[in-house]
UniProtKB/TrEMBL annotation:
Transmembrane spans: 28-50, 93-117, 129-148, 160-180, 201-226, 285-304
Membrane topology: Multi-pass membrane protein
Gene3D superfamilies: MetI-like
Compartment(s): Cell membrane
PANTHER family according to UniProt: ABC TRANSPORTER PERMEASE PROTEIN MG189-RELATED-RELATED, POLYGALACTURONAN_RHAMNOGALACTURONAN TRANSPORT SYSTEM PERMEASE PROTEIN YTCP
InterPro entries named among the record's database cross-references: MetI-like (IPR000515), MetI-like_sf (IPR035906)
Keyword tags: Cell membrane, Membrane, Transmembrane, Transmembrane helix, Transport
Protein name per UniProt: Sugar ABC transporter permease
GO biological process: transmembrane transport
One Gene Ontology term, aspect cellular component: plasma membrane
Record-annotated ABC transmembrane type-1 domain positions: 93-304
Entry's family note: Belongs to the binding-protein-dependent transport system permease family.
Pfam families listed in its UniProt record: BPD_transp_1
Provenance organism: Paenibacillus donghaensis
Length: 319
């Protein structure tokens, strides 16, 4: 009988030790680099906003000296009192809220309905209509034809000029249509078997399943409507009761740039040092109005964020 000779193997302890040491150093280096990078990124991102808050809470004369970074030197709320004492900010705020809410709701509903229609393969003209909508993303008539169109529609100096032109968006339609195309067709088929019509399928099946993409689109539409001021400048500048908050902010910024030589005049709405009982400056007023205009969007965003990643249709169909 032949004897089998056992070849002794090297002990892997040395390799294991090196591997443990390597695996112990790599997470530490990555964690350190990631922490430092994220701190720098957060600092660069938040510093302008925190600096604006500090300036808005600092006394106007002291702000002119400069050197305000993250903490006010002389605390005051007189800048905010001056903003709200003008008499135009609060009405403009409610106009902006109304246009933002209506524009967002109508844009979501109508654009989603259009996207569902164009996502149906049995619809004969879906490619042609989609091409027409995509064409509007590349070619525009320009400002003057748009102005005459708004005028012919009798929307000048009307609140609906803020809402009607933005009821449907070609880009949002393409995004929502792509999302609807990813839904399982068996969901719609089961609803049809139960006798549901297309509108019922849209309202009770498709629309609820589109909550993630609708939340994203809603945030984009709301931010765009809230920050818009040019349409108020073009179409409703002669009606003070239709002025928006961002348009008032633009007027404050423009007037403050022209009033740097005379700090007692802050804006065209009559916000002066005499009217508020304390010295306010263009820089401090601009900071205060910027914070007032930013707070509503900052309050809405956390409620929309949870829909960005998690979908409502996860696990709804098992095939």
């Amino acid at each position: 009988m032949e004897k089998t000779q056992l070849i002794p193997q090297k002990s892997p302890k040395s390799n294991v030790g090196k591997r443990i040491r390597y695996m112990g150093v790599e997470p530490i280096l990555f964690g350190t680099f990631n922490t430092v990078f994220m701190i720098c990124l957060v600092t660069v991102t938040l510093y302008p906003f925190l600096n604006t808050i500090a300036i808005s809470l600092n006394e106007g004369n002291d702000t002119i000296r400069g050197g305000i970074y993250l903490w006010p030197r002389e605390w005051t709320i007189q800048n905010y009192k001056a903003v709200f004492a003008s008499g135009t900010i609060i009405p403009a705020f409610w106009v902006s809220v109304a246009r933002t809410v209506l524009s967002t709701i109508l844009n979501l509903f109508l654009t989603t309905m259009l996207a569902y229609t164009l996502s149906r393969k049995e619809y004969v003209f879906r490619k042609q209509i989609t091409f027409v909508f995509v064409l509007t993303m590349y070619f525009s008539a320009g400002l003057i034809p748009n102005y005459f169109l708004i005028k012919d529609l009798h929307l000048l100096n009307s609140f609906w000029v803020y809402v009607i032109p933005s009821m449907v968006s070609a880009f949002n339609m393409i995004v929502i249509r792509t999302y609807i195309g990813s839904l399982h067709e068996s969901l719609m088929e089961s609803a049809r078997i139960d006798g549901a019509g297309e509108f019922t399928i849209f309202m009770r099946v498709v629309f609820p399943l589109c909550k993630p993409v609708l939340a994203t689109i809603a945030l984009f539409v709301a931010v765009g409507a809230w920050n818009s001021w040019f349409d108020a400048f073009i179409y409703t500048s002669s009606r003070q009761n239709l002025s928006t908050l961002q348009y008032e902010l633009m007027k404050l910024i423009s007037s403050s740039m022209n009033a740097n030589s005379d700090p007692s005049v802050v804006n065209g709405a009559g916000v002066t040092a005499e009217s508020t009982g304390s010295m306010v400056t263009p820089m401090s007023i601009r900071a205060a109005v910027t914070i007032v205009a930013s707070v509503p969007i900052l309050l809405v965003y956390p409620f929309m964020q949870k829909y960005f990643v998690v979908g409502m249709n996860v696990g709804s169909v098992k095939e």
